[in-house]
Amino acid sequence: MNVRIDIHQERTVEAGPVFRVSTAVTYCYGIDPNIFVFDVETDSFSHVATVWDMLNVKTDKIVAQVNNEPFYRKISAVVDYADQVIAKEAADYTAARVNLLAKTYDQMNTEFAGKNDYSYVEP
C-alpha cells in the first residue's frame, strides 16, 4: 500500500507583525487527510500526527470532548508566530513531519502488517 500526502503551505505576514503559517492537505492516498493534531481545550495546533495519533485520535472534536480525550485531528492548521525565523523553521519542520508520517504510515502497512506461515522441523 502506498501512502501519499500532498500539502499546500502558505506563509504570510499579518498585522502586528504576525508571521502566519497555513498548511492544508490537498490530496492524500492510503491515509486519512486529517493529519494535524489539535488540543481539545484550547483549539491550538499541537503537532503533525504520528502513526499512533492516526490510529487513536478522533477527527471529531465533540466526540473527543465526550470521551475526555485531549486531542482531535483536522485537515489543516493555521499557526501564528511572533518571530519570522521561528515561523520559517516551524513551516519547514511541519513539512518534514508530514513527509515522515507518510513514510512511517506506509512502513506500518507494508513492512509490519501481513500474515506469515512458518514450519519448523527438528533434524
Q: Could you characterize what this model shows?
A:
The chain has 123 residues and is of the alpha+beta class. The chain has one domain. The protein has three helices and six strands. The longest helix is centred in the C-terminal third of the chain and has 29 residues, at 84-112. The termini are far apart.
Q: What ranges have pLDDT less than 50 throughout 5 or more consecutive residues?
A: none
Mean of residue pLDDT values: 93
**Main sheet: strand order:** 1-2-6
Overall shape: it is elongated
Content of β-strand: 25-35%
The helix-and-strand class reads alpha+beta
User: How many structural domains are formed by the residues?
Assistant: 1
How many β-strands, per DSSP? 6
- What does the largest sheet look like? 3 strands, antiparallel
Order of helices and strands: EEEEHHEEH
Radius of gyration: 18 Å
Distance between the termini: 39 Å
Helix content: 25-40%
Number of helices: 3
List keywords for this structure.
123 residues, alpha+beta, 3-stranded antiparallel beta sheet, 3 helices, 33% strand
Summarize the structure.
The protein is α+β, with helices and mostly antiparallel strands. The protein contains 3 helices and 6 strands; from the N terminus they run E-E-E-E-H-H-E-E-H. It starts with a strand and ends in an 11-residue tail after the last helix.
